[in-house]
Amino acid sequence: MSGIRPFPRKTVAAVAVIGVVGLCAARKSSFRNEAFAESPKPCGVPGNPGFGPGGKMGFHTLRLESSQQVNDNTKRLRFQLSDPATNAGLSLTSFILTFHKPKDAWFPVIRPYTPINNFDEPGYIELLVKKYPNGRASGYLHSLQPGDTLKIRGPMSGYKWKTNEFEHVNLIAGGAGITPMYQLIQGMLNNPDDKSKIKLIFGVNTDKDLVMKKELDVFEQKFPDRLKVVYTVSDPVEGSPFTKGKITKELLEKELMGPKDSKTTKVFLCGPLAMEAAIFGSKGWTSSQKGVLEELGYTADRIHKF
């Protein structure tokens, strides 16, 4: 699940190894923009060995166990591993690539998705998939019924997470960009050795887009000294308990924790392209835009964009 954002450069390289070099070269620009309109994933390269039995990363076929409708455009899909006693070999910030080949298509549709399941529980993985208008991958995944199969490649590793590397971990998520953030929150809080404090700033368009809120509430209640979640909704319903508005400079200045110039503080960002450009900044051939975080005093090494 994800907002609109470019296909990670390193992931493009990994896909090329799979055998679609020609496709990536010929459609580099359009493929990047298309891919993350459906599922933004953390930047990554092939990493953790062992997806399922045999301990090997590669292609795997998973069977859909259940499909849960979360809201009008989002589903939670649980896929079985071939061995129910096997762990998927996932690690924090890891992701998978999904494959399907539409009828009469020359090349498969390949998209990255972030699993949201508890990595300590064997036998399955779960994906949170938002369906986009004309989304080829998201539409296909939403069409799957229990018993259907999905071809994937993984796990793919992303940011090299180290337990307790940072005292203050700030997470900024927009819309479907919540998936890598939730994976990180869950993994950190389920690790008894991890002592980092976490603040999540989660912005969405409407109240119904606050997916994973129930799960976040449970973690926030269980770890009140370690996790704080701030919600903001652009177009809230009447009587909504959430702050109205987008993720702004003023909101970030108020809510981000930890010394901004210290190596003990880290900011992770994931969301739609426009949001990421506003917060992180952007550079083009003819112009560049300074991001809100830079204006607030955060240097590039203090920020990671999934």
Question: Would you write up a description of this structure?
Answer:
By secondary structure, the chain is α/β, with parallel strands linked by helices. About 25% of the residues lie in helices and about 30% in strands. It has helices at about 10-25, 30-35, 135-145, 180-190, 215-220, 250-255, 275-280, 290-295; strands at about 45, 60-70, 75-80, 95-100, 110-115, 125-130, 150-155, 170-175, 195-205, 225-235, 245, 265-270, 280-285, 290, 305. Strands 1, 2, 3, 4, 5, 6 and 7 form a 7-stranded antiparallel β-sheet that branches. The radius of gyration is 19 Å and the shape is globular. The two termini are about 15 Å apart. Its cofactor is FAD. Its main location: mitochondrion. It is an enzyme of class 1 (oxidoreductase). It is a single-pass membrane protein.
Give the tags.
seven-stranded antiparallel sheet; six-stranded parallel sheet; disordered N terminus; EC 1.6.2.2; NADH-cytochrome b5 reductase; FNR_nucleotide-bd; membrane; Riboflavin_synthase-like_b-brl
Helix content: 10-25%
Strand content: 25-35%
Chain oligomer state: single chain
Gyration radius, in Å: 19 Å
Biggest sheet descriptor? 7 strands, antiparallel
Taken from the alpha-carbon principal axes, the silhouette is globular
Which stretches are poorly predicted, pLDDT < 50 over at least 5 residues?
1-6, 12-50
- Mean of all residue-level pLDDT scores: 84
Question: How many strand units?
Answer: 15
Cα-to-Cα separation, first versus last residue: 13 Å
User: From N to C, what is the helix and strand string?
Assistant: HHEEEEEEHEEHEHEEHEHEEHE
